[in-house]
Design a protein that fits this description.
Layout (H helix, E strand, L loop, with lengths): L4 H21 L4 E5 L30 E5 L7 E2 L2 E2 L6
Antiparallel strand pairs: 1-2, 3-4
Keywords: Signal
InterPro entries: DUF2282_membr
Pfam families: DUF2282
């Protein structure tokens, strides 16, 4: 069976698209984890006194969050306790 150039191109394109879709699926699920960010290392707006990423003024601020791998937040230990899935 002989493939035309168009058929071969279409087959290659489908294979590449499937590979890209699979690569996107391999990213781990993430969740917001409150109280684990050090001063200046929060991810986006974290409440009063912050406007976006990197603006928190104190370490482990309870209303400040970082994105972490899903399922790991509450196991993260800081000098102020463990991470929380809700603001403190």
């Amino acid at each position: 069976m002989k493939l035309s150039h168009a058929s071969l191109a279409a087959t290659l394109a489908l294979g590449l698209a499937a590979g890209v879709a699979h690569a996107a699926d391999s990213k781990p699920a993430m969740e917001k984890c409150y109280g684990v960010a050090r001063a200046g290392h929060n991810d986006c707006a974290a409440g009063a006194g912050t406007t976006c990423a990197g603006t928190q003024k104190t370490d482990y601020q309870g209303n400040s969050w970082k994105l972490v791998k899903a399922g790991t937040c509450t196991s993260i230990k800081t000098p102020k306790g463990h991470g929380s899935l809700t603001p403190r």
